[in-house]
Design a protein that fits this description.
Mean pLDDT: 86
Distance between the termini: 28 Å
Low-confidence stretches: none
Structural class: alpha+beta
């Protein structure tokens, strides 16, 4: 079952990256933004604001506060904004309080959404991640996305090399090579 969960998580991460972060070849538009301008992409006027919010989804780092049923409370590490995602389809009930997670975040009017591609970083990496996030303040969304993707790569290195001390992976120490 762990392999199935890992496959689904990795697939969700790929789709989120592909749809919301990766610009299409020859354009500066992501597939989510491009779809809004395609003649064949049919959406109702009621659905359009939701799809527009998804097209503007940003990759963010959050500190997990708590969950009440399917409502999740978190704090954006870069902006310090506290948010609530109500009726989320994302299961975060086993996430330790205070842990850092990264995901795409969309805001549709007053409604917040997390995408399904979520990485929950180890609790012990919090100090390193928060110190990295402090460097982001005032940087562009694209730069913040690149650093978030770097943190995801560190997570996968930790997963791939479980015998290596976590502090050696979640580090800017250039002497550690993989």
């Amino acid at each position: 079952e762990k392999d199935t969960g890992d496959f689904e998580r990795n697939l969700n991460l790929f789709f989120d990256w592909y749809l919301f972060t990766r610009p299409l070849h020859g354009t500066l538009l992501t597939p989510a933004k491009m779809a809004l301008n395609l003649d064949g992409f049919e959406i109702t006027p009621e659905e359009r604001p939701f799809f527009e919010a998804l097209a503007e989804a940003k990759y963010c780092l959050f500190e997990y506060i708590k969950s009440k049923g399917n409502d999740h409370y978190a704090k954006n590490i870069v902006t310090n904004d506290k948010i609530v995602v109500k009726n989320s389809s994302v299961n975060m009930l086993m996430t330790p309080k205070g842990s850092i997670f990264s995901t795409h975040f969309a805001k549709d009017g007053g409604t917040n959404h997390f995408t399904s591609g979520i990485i929950c970083h180890p609790v012990d990496s919090k100090k390193f991640i928060v110190s990295e996030a402090k460097k982001w303040k005032g940087t562009s969304t694209e730069q913040q996305s690149q650093v978030s993707i770097h943190l995801i790569k560190l997570y996968f290195k930790l997963e791939r090399y479980p015998h290596v001390n976590q502090e050696q992976i979640y580090s800017n120490n250039s002497s550690v090579r993989f």
